[in-house]
UniProtKB/TrEMBL annotation:
The keyword Methyltransferase applies. Its EC number is 2.1.1.80. The keyword Cytoplasm does not apply. GO terms for biological process: methylation. It catalyses: L-glutamyl-[protein] + S-adenosyl-L-methionine = [protein]-L-glutamate 5-O-methyl ester + S-adenosyl-L-homocysteine. Residues 1-272 form the CheR-type methyltransferase domain. One of its GO terms (molecular function) is protein-glutamate O-methyltransferase activity. It is an enzyme of class 2 (transferase). Pfam families: CheR, CheR_N. This is protein-glutamate O-methyltransferase. InterPro entries: Bact_Chemotaxis_MeTrfase, Chemotaxis_MeTrfase_CheR, CheR_C, CheR_MeTrfase, CheR_N, CheR_N_sf, SAM-dependent_MTases_sf. It comes from the Bacteria. The lineage of its organism: Bacteria, Bacillati, Bacillota, Negativicutes, Selenomonadales.
Length: 272
């Protein structure tokens, strides 16, 4: 594939926005060209127009899956924006441990990427409930658009540099060394997380129950204002009263757009 024409770029980025909610402006043209070039080579497709027709005609969902893997950015690390985890541990978990009579804590990590955030939350939950854990259902739902990122998350293999910022006790309790430089999350922690593919741009979310906590950090930066507003509204609908929404520090929910109460930078709460 050569350089994308303006028309090809317009059609493909509109398709991406409609399918996944991801806004790719003109400044991303070189990035899109580079990522799609690899896709077209792997599929044996010669040009962008043929690829666009392939996307439109595919009924299996495989074409969209490949496209999503290509255009999503999976940049994350353990303990990212650590103030959130401190607040989660010191304020959110104590509140729900007192409030929930059915001992069913529902947490959704809504853009889990390669798993670091979800595993961090799971370790905090394990630590907090400790000996009481047997009497609680605290399994996390962790979703992402990218199936390749989810495969990495399920494997749970990270290099020593990645886990170096974690407390030594966590590294010893929740990880096993598999070779000189790599560690793998133990099954005891993996079993606390349900990993699923999920598109946040779905018109409706269909879950069995609402959540007490939603983490969706550093994702809405890729959406335009309308898409962000729609997503925030869906999060609001799927939070229990008193539930918390954590977003990225570089993200803002505009005050006129939501019914959430502001708690602290990038943390919001649904009214009781």
């Amino acid at each position: 594939m050569g350089i994308l024409s303006e028309e090809d770029f317009r059609k493909l980025t509109l398709y991406i926005k409609n399918k996944f909610g991801i806004h790719l402006g003109r400044e991303k043209k070189t990035l899109v060209e580079g990522r799609l070039h690899k896709v077209l080579l792997s599929l044996g497709i010669d040009n962008a127009n043929d690829y666009y027709q392939y996307l439109l005609q595919d009924k299996t969902g495989q074409a969209d899956k490949i496209l999503a893997n290509a255009i999503t950015t999976n940049h994350t690390f353990f303990m990212r924006e650590s103030q959130h985890f401190e607040y989660f541990s010191e304020e959110v978990l104590p509140y729900f441990s007192e409030k929930l009579s059915d001992n069913d804590l529902r947490t959704w990590c809504a853009a889990c990427s390669t798993g670091e955030e979800a595993y961090t939350l799971a370790m905090i939950i394990q630590d907090f409930f400790s000996l009481q854990k047997q009497s609680w259902d605290t399994k996390l739902l962790a979703t992402d658009l990218s199936t390749s990122a989810l495969n990495d998350a399920r494997l749970g293999i990270y290099n020593d540099e990645s886990i170096d910022m974690l407390p030594k006790r966590w590294r010893k309790t929740y990880f096993k060394q598999i070779n000189e430089n790599n560690f793998q999350v133990k099954n005891s922690l993996k079993n606390e997380i349900i990993f699923r593919q999920f598109n946040l741009n779905n018109p409706q979310f269909l879950f069995k129950k609402k959540f007490h906590i939603i983490f969706c950090r550093n994702v809405m930066i890729y959406f335009d204002r309308v898409t962000r507003k729609e997503l925030v509204n869906k999060f609001y609908q799927w939070l229990e009263p008193g539930g918390y929404l954590f977003i990225g520090h570089s993200e803002v929910i505009e005050r006129g757009d939501f019914s959430f109460q502001y708690v602290m930078p990038a943390v919001y709460r649904k009214g009781l």
